[in-house]
Amino acid sequence: MHGASVELIAVSKRYGAALAVDAVGLQVPAGSYCCLLGPSGCGKTTTLRMIAGHETASDGHIRIGPREVGHLPPAARGTAMMFQSYALFPHLDCLDNVAFGPRMRGVDKATRQRRAREMLALVRMESYAHRLPAQLSGGQQQRVALGRALVTEPSVLLLDEPLSALDPFLRIQVRAELKRLQKELGITFIHVTHSQEEAMALSDLVVVMNGGRIEQAAPPREVFSRPATAFVARFIGGHNVIALPQGCRLVAVRVDRMRLSPAGAEDAAPGPSLTARVDTVEYQGSFVQLRLQALDPAVSATELFAVMPDDAFAARPFAVGEPVTARWGEGDAHALRDVQPPAVAPALEELSP
Amino acid sequence: MDGTRALQMGRIDDARVAAAPGRVAPRRSRGGAYWQAAPFALLFLLFFILPLCLTVAVSFWHYDEYSLTPAFTLENYQEVFDGCIAKLPALCVTFATYLSTLRFALLAWVATLVLGFGIAYFLAFHVRSVPVQMGLFLLCTVPFWTSNIIRMVAWVPLLGRNGLVNQGLQAVGLTDAPLDWLLYSEFSVVLAFVHLYTLFMMVPIFNSMARIDRSLIEAARDAGASGWQTLWNVVIPLCKPGIVIGSIFVLTIVMGDFVTVGIMGGQQIASIGKVIQVQMNYLQFPIAAANAVVLLGIVLLMIWALTRLVDIRREL
Fold first, then answer.
1. B76 Cβ partners below 8 Å, 6+ apart?
2. Subunit contact B220:A104, Cβ cutoff 8 A
3. What is the distance between the alpha carbons of residues B118 and B29, in angstroms, rounded to a whole number?
4. Under 8 Å between Cβ of A80 and A154
5. Are residues B43 and B96 in the same domain?
6. Domain check: are B47 and B87 in the same one?
C-alpha cells in the first residue's frame, strides 16, 4: 500500500440555496495523517464524503495523487471509507464483511479469504472471523470496519468520526491503534472529528473548519501556538482572545503565558497587561485555573483564563474577588486575522447580581 | 385556575405513585397481560380454533345421499385420493386440481414478488422525501377502498371480447379479431391475483427495506459493488424476512381462493377451493372437510418450509 496526496481546489457543495462547503482549498501530503476538525455543521463530513465520492462537488476539483477524481465512483478513487456507524453488513460474518470488497471485484474465494484473514489479523480480530457484527462490541465492530476498509489496499483512508461511538477509555486505545496503523501502512488518513484533543494527538495536519470554510490548515503545534483566527483560538482552547484598546486587531494569548501579580505591584516586567478581578479558582492537580473578569471595559474579551503551576499558586495564592494585573510578553501575544472583536457570550456571573 | 391545575397535577402524581408498585411487581403485571390478551384469545378460540376442530371432526364423518352420521371413518380421505396412486403417472382429479392451484399460486407469487419488490424498492430507495413516499404508499392502497368482487368485475368491461383493450388493439391495428384469452382464462385469473395481492407482498418488503441503514448501501458502493451487486448481496438478503412474510400472505390466500378463480376464470377453471365450495353446495360436508384438512396441511407445509429459510421472528 502506498499513500497518495489529496488536493482540493476551490471545492464547494451546495444543497439548494444552502452552502455546506464554500470554495475549500486544501493540500494533504501523501502518507500524512490529516484531521478535519470543527463543530457540527461546519462542512467537515461533507468535505470527506466528497473526497470519498459519496457526494459530488457542486464546484471545484478534487485530486488524489496526480489524478482528477471528481467524476469517478468511490471504488475507482483508491480511497476507502470507514463509516461513523461502521456500516458492517449485519447478515455477513466478520470474514465475509472484510472479504466483501474483493468479492465484488471478482477475486477468487481462496485469495479473498486469505486476504480477509490477513486484515483481521492486522486489526487483531482473527479469532472473531465467524462472528456476526451483532455479536461484537462497539470497539470490535470498529476494528472489523477498519479491516474491511483496508482490504482493498486504498491509498487514502477516510474516517468519519471513527471514535465518537466509543467510551472514553477505549477511545484513547483505539486512537493509538489508528496512529500505529497509519505509520505502519504509510497511507494517507483523513479523519473527521469534533474533538480537538483527538486532532492534536493524531494528526500531522490539522484542518480547522467553520461555516463551510477552512479557518486554518497547519501542523498541530502551529495551530496551537499560532491560531490564525479567534475561532481557531477558541475552538482549540487554551487561549484568551483579547481586543486591547490600543490595537485594532485581536490577539490570542495562551492561558499558561498569562502572569498574574497583585494589582498595583509596580515591580513586574514591562509589557502588555490588563487589570482584572479573580472570578473563580479551580484546583486541577498539577495546575490551578483562574477565571478572570477584566476591569477595564475597553478590553473586550469573552472569557479570560490564567493557568498557574500548583506550586507557584501555593507560594502566592489569589483569592476570589482579588484584583490582579495580568501580564504577558510581547512575543506571547499572537495577532489574529479577524479584526472585529469576538461576540460577547454572557457568562453565568453576569446574570446574577 | 392555577389551584385546580395544581390539584389535578397532584392527583395525577398520586395516581402514578399508586400505579408504580403494580408496574414493579412482576406477578401482577403478568396477570394484567393475560387479561389484556384474553379478548383476542377468546375471539380466536371461538371463530378459529373451534371451527377448525369441528372441520377436522366432520372430515371423519360418514355421509350418503340423504344423511350425515357422526363416525370415525377414513373413507372421505380415501375418496379424496380415490385411484390417485393407481392411475399414476396419469393424474387423478385431485392431483390435477392441486397441480393447477399450485401453478396459479406459483405464477401469482412470482408476479407479485417481482412487482412488490420493485415498487417497494422504488419507494424506499428512490423517493427521497417522506411526504411523497407516504403519498405514493397511500396511492397503492386505493384499490382497497372497494371490495374484492367489485375490483374483479371491473376487469370485465376492460378485458371482454368487446372490451376496451380489445377495441383499442383492433383500432390500432395490432389484431384483426378480438383476443379471447384476455378474459375467463388463466391469464385473467393471474392478473386478478396480482391486482388484488401485490400490496400484501409490497408492504412487508417495504417494511424490511425501510430498516436498512443507508450507510450499508454506501459501504457496498465504497467496496466497489455495482448497483446490481448491491441489490443482490446487500438489499435482497436484508429483505428476506419481508419477502417471506409477503410470500406467506400471497401463497396462503391464492391456495384457498375460489372466488377469483370462479369469476375471472368464467367458472371453467378448477381450483381446490372451488372443489370444496362445490362439495359444500351439494351438502357433502364430510368430503369437503377432508379436502379442507388436506389443503390446510399442504399450506402449513409451505409456510413451514418458508420459515425454515428465514427466521421471521426477527422481523415481528
1. B59, B60, B61, B63, B286, B287, B289, B290
2. yes
3. 44
4. yes
5. no
6. no
Amino acid at B258: F
Q: Which of A296, A295, A294 is nearest to A306 (CA)?
A: A294
Say if the Cβ atoms of A152 and B224 lie within 8 Å: yes
* Nearest CA-CA partner of A77 in A50, A100, A59: A50
- Say yes or no: A132 contacts chain B, CB-CB below 8 A: no
Are A83 and B226 within 8 A, CB to CB? no
Distance from CA of B257 to the nearest CA of A (A): 36
For residue A10, give the C-alpha cell. Answer: 476551490
Pair B42, B186 in one domain: no
Cβ-nearest to A75 among B216, B224, B234: B224
Please give the pLDDT value at position A83.
Answer: 92
CA distance B228 to A38: 37
Backbone angles phi, psi at B32, to 5 degrees: -60, -40
Same domain as B215, residue B152: yes
Burial of A118 (0-12, 13-18, 19+ CB in 10 A): middle
Identify whether B117 is part of a domain.
yes
Element (H, E) at A60: strand A59-64
Is the CB of A105 less than 8 angstroms away from the CB of B224?
A: yes
Shortest CB distance from A87 goes to which of B216, B225, B229?
B216
Shared domain for B45 and B175, answered yes or no, is: no
Report the residue from A83, A103, A152 with minimal CB separation from B215: A83
Residue B277 sits in a domain of what CATH number?
1.10.3720.10
Phi-psi region of B158 (alpha: psi -120 to 50; beta: other; left: phi over 0): alpha
- Is the CB of A75 less than 8 angstroms away from the CB of B213? no
Nearest chain B residue (CA) to A153: B223
Alpha carbons A289 and A291: distance in angstroms, whole number: 7
List of domains in chain A: 6-230 (3.40.50.300), 238-335 (2.40.50.100)
Could you read off the pLDDT of B146-161 as tens digits, one per residue? 888 888 888 888 888 8
The count of other CB atoms within 10 Å of the CB of residue A165 is 15
- Looking up cell 486587531 gives A249
Same domain, yes or no, for B43 and B190?
no
Written as nine digits, the cell of A213 is 470554510
How many angstroms away from the CA of B217 is the closest CA of chain A?
9
Beta strand ranges found along A211-336 (DSSP E): 213-218, 239-243, 250-254, 259-262, 273-283, 287-294, 304-309, 323-327, 334-335
Q: Is the dihedral of CA B184, B185, B189, B191 positive or negative?
A: negative
Look at the pTM and tell me if it is higher than 0.90: no
Contact A166, A124 (CB under 8 A): no
Number of separate domains in chain B: 2
Span of A94-108, A216-230, B157-171 with lowest mean pLDDT: B157-171
Other CB atoms within 10 A of residue B178 CB:
16
pLDDT in tens, A258-305: 888 887 766 556 677 888 889 899 998 889 999 988 887 666 666 789
Distance between A75 CA and the closest CA of chain B, angstroms: 5
Is A11 touching B (CB cutoff 8 A)? no
C-alpha cell at A342: 469576538
Chosen from A56, A86, A89, A103 to mutate, greatest number of chain B CBs within 10 A: A89
Same domain, B42 and B146: no
More confident residue, A331 or A92: A92
Residue B280 lies in a domain: yes
Q: Are residues B235 and B294 in the same domain?
A: yes
Report the complex ipTM: 0.81
